[in-house]
């Protein structure tokens, strides 16, 4: 009789896991408490994989030999509690998929910068001629890639949610970029518990691997001081970056991840593809990761020159009559916004708001007082933002319409001002996701600002 695997959640992660599990001979059942998109229903039907939507039928779930839980499902939901009480092992999709690949894994996590660092690491390996795929919390699921691709390397963006349910997941290189308050509603408002979820990545890295971490991050240092990491470690730091130049150590291992190494002259990289101190940290981490799996200085230098970052990350959209529009929709927490507000030397009209995740906006006060001339709140519930910033800036306005927000920002702007969409919040109140929010922002700029299809508005109308 086939072992039965139940998969909770039928998004990209869950369906990818279902396809891989079926290919490996399991009896598979998929259960989603919400509606399943037609795209994924078509895939499941094509492969004759049983599924249900808008319910969790306990009799079909609690007879499983194992459960794969999609990362978005909290361990506190009733069906997961019942699975745990029944003694059924629960794992994540990245855990399950890692059992079926011999490729070396570079896993990248952190509160901010994961996507940029993951894409740069992938790009450097790809440009060097390696057989490499990118997956995890970006693009297609890891399980789907394992099913269809035979590669030397996987570069995975992994979230704390994905790491919660690992047992044997063991990357060759683990990268931890930073830890700042985020998703605290998932972790009982405890930064320590959130940090512990991030550090689960190193649990199985006992020898033979490399843990690359941010030496400047106090929250990382606190955890490292109280746990015993059983693998080689290497720090990166803001001290690597100065005046547009990035200097990283060039350690030459006799064998990849060998115990002994010889320190070589440091490598200096100029003409960097990304600007700002926070991106210097991301680049440092990516460069160290690829050097540790065997890339040369020349390969890294060549690859850096051709890299372009993904959309929605401090993405220039347009400059109209001296007013520059920047799409930073991916900035869904306070720390990411801190980097954004510190990246410009000219006055900022800041568009902020959405689904608050327990943000402490006081962390931004110094930068707001210094750099922000006006605030536009774009969200359904802006009370927390309005209360915090009402006396701090001379103009604050709220709206639920991105076109209204963009037009008002344009009229507020003067020559060399920056209109910055950097929301500090999740997007699900008004948009499908952060990509949709950023795309609608860009569309509004294109259709109503670049074409100068703007209406006269009363700027005296503020909150």
TrEMBL record:
Pathway, per record: Cell wall biogenesis; peptidoglycan biosynthesis
Highest taxon listed in the record's lineage: Bacteria
Catalytic activity: UDP-N-acetyl-alpha-D-muramoyl-L-alanine + D-glutamate + ATP = UDP-N-acetyl-alpha-D-muramoyl-L-alanyl-D-glutamate + ADP + phosphate + H(+)
GO biological process, one term: regulation of cell shape
Molecular-function annotations in GO: ATP binding; tetrahydrofolylpolyglutamate synthase activity; UDP-N-acetylmuramoylalanine-D-glutamate ligase activity
EC number of this enzyme: 6.3.2.9
Residues that bind ATP: 110-116
Pfam families according to UniProt: Mur_ligase_C, Mur_ligase_M, MurD_N
Places the protein is found: Cytoplasm
Stated family: Belongs to the MurCDEF family.
Name recorded for this polypeptide: UDP-N-acetylmuramoylalanine--D-glutamate ligase
Encoding gene per record: murD
């Amino acid at each position: 009789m086939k072992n039965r695997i139940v998969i909770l959640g039928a998004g990209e992660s869950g369906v990818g896991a279902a396809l891989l599990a079926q290919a490996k001979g399991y009896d598979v059942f998929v259960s989603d408490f919400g509606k399943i998109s037609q795209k994924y229903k078509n895939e499941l039907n094509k492969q004759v994989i049983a599924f249900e939507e808008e319910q969790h039928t306990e009799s079909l779930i609690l007879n499983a030999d194992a459960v794969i839980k999609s990362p978005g499902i909290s361990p506190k939901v009733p069906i997961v509690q019942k699975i745990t009480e029944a003694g059924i092992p629960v794992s994540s999709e990245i855990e399950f998929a890692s059992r079926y690949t011999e490729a070396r894994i570079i896993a990248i996590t952190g509160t901010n910068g994961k996507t940029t660092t993951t894409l740069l690491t992938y790009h450097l390996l790809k440009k060097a001629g390696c057989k490499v795929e990118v997956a995890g919390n970006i693009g297609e699921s890891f399980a789907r890639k394992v099913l269809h691709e035979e590669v030397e390397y996987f570069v995975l963006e992994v979230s704390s949610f994905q790491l919660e349910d690992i047992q044997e997941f063991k990357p060759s290189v683990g990268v931890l970029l930073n830890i700042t308050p985020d998703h605290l509603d998932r972790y009982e408002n405890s930064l320590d518990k959130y940090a512990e979820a991030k550090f689960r990545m190193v649990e199985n890295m006992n020898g033979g691997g490399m843990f690359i971490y941010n030496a400047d991050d106090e929250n990382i240092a606190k955890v490292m001081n109280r746990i015993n990491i059983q693998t080689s470690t290497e720090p990166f730091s803001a001290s690597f970056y100065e005046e547009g130049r990035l200097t990283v150590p060039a350690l030459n291992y006799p064998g990849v991840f060998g115990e002994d190494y010889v320190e070589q002259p440091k490598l200096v990289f100029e003409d960097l593809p990304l600007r700002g101190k926070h991106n210097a940290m991301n680049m440092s981490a990516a460069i160290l990761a690829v050097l540790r799996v065997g890339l040369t200085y020349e390969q890294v230098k060549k690859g850096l020159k051709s890299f372009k970052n993904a959309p929605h990350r401090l993405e220039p959209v347009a400059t109209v009559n001296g007013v520059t529009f920047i799409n930073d929709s991916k900035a869904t927490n306070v720390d990411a916004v801190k980097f954004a507000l510190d990246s410009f030397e000219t006055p900022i009209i800041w568009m902020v708001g959405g689904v608050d995740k327990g943000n402490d906006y006081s962390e931004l006060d110094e930068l707001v007082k210094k750099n922000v001339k006006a605030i536009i709140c774009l969200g359904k519930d802006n009370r927390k933002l309005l209360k915090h910033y009402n006396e701090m800036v001379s103009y604050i306005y709220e709206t639920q319409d991105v076109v209204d927000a963009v037009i008002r920002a344009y009229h507020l702007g003067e020559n060399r001002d920056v209109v910055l969409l950097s929301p500090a919040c999740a997007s699900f109140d008004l948009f499908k996701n952060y990509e949709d929010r950023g795309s609608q922002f860009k569309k509004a700029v294109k259709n109503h600002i670049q074409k100068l299809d703007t209406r006269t508005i009363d700027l005296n109308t503020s909150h």
